[in-house]
From TrEMBL:
Chain spans, region Disordered: 59-79
Native source species: Saccharothrix xinjiangensis
Recorded superkingdom: Bacteria
Protein name: Uncharacterized protein
Amino acid sequence: MDFDVVLGIDSASFSAGVDQLNKDPKSHDEFFKGEYEGNNAQGTWEVVDQSPAFEFRPPTADKWQGSIGPDGRHPTGDPPTDNVFLLSIPSLRLDATIGGQALPEVSPAVEFYARAVLDSGTASLTPLAIWADESQLSAAEKAIVNGIVLPQVFQKLSTVLSGHAVPPQKITFGGSTLELTLAAVLVTDSHLVVVATADTSTATTLPSAWPDQPVFAIVNHDFAQHLAASAAEAHKGVTLLDEQSSNAAASLSAKAVLNSVDDIAINQGDATSWSAALDVSFDVSASVLGAKCALKKSSDSL
C-alpha cells in the first residue's frame, strides 16, 4: 500500500470528542439520555458518571453473542475483528416502571461495537451491535433492556458515530489545488490510522511501523518536495516589501521582490521541515536635505 499522508490518533485522543459531547448539556440530552415505553413498561436511560471512551479492540465472543444488533436480535457466529473497535459506557442508568410498579434503579456497563470502513474514497464508522452487562439484572429488567432500551441507545449512538464520515479532501497549497483520496482506514491496537494519496504521482510505500505519539502525521518526502516546489513557484515575483516614507528633511523608499526559491531541501528526519535559497532583489533609495543616494542588490542568493 502506498501513501502521501498518514494521520493517526490514539483511543484517548479519539475519546476526547465524545467526552466533550457528553459534558455539553445540550449534546448530552440529545445523544446520551432518553425515554422509552413499550411492552407495559416505561422509564428513562442516561449515561452517568464517566464519559464513554473508545477502545481499539473487538468484542469478546460471549459479549458479541449476547449483544443486540441493528435488527434487534442477538448476532451469531464469531465476533468480527477487522477494523472493529468499541465504545465503552461504564454506567448507563435505567429507571423502569412495569405495570405501574417502579423497579429499583440499575446502572449496567454497556459496550457499543462499530467498524471503520472505506467506500469509494470515503471513510466512515458502521455501527454493528450493542451489549449490556446483565449479570445483576432480573428477568424483567433483562427483557426491558434487550427489547426496548438497547435498541434505542444503539440508534442514538449510531447517529453520533455515523456523522463522522470523511470524504476525499481538496486542499489549496501554493496556489494549486490538490485532491487527497483516502486509500485505507486501519484500526490497530493503539491507533485509528487514515492513509491518503494525492493526485501528484508521488505516493510511496507505507512505513513498516507507526510513531507512538498520541496523534501523528507522516508526509512522504516526494510529496513534501512537490508541495515545497508548488509554494516556491506560486511566490515567484511576490513583493515582500514596498515602503515609502518622507518628511520635510528626508524621504526613504524601499522595495524587495522574491525572484525565486531554489535548492529546496527536505529534512530527511522530518518531511515537514524545509530549507531553501531565496533569490531576492532589493531597491532602496533615500534623500536627505535634497541629497540622494541609492542601494541596489539584485539576483543574489541569501
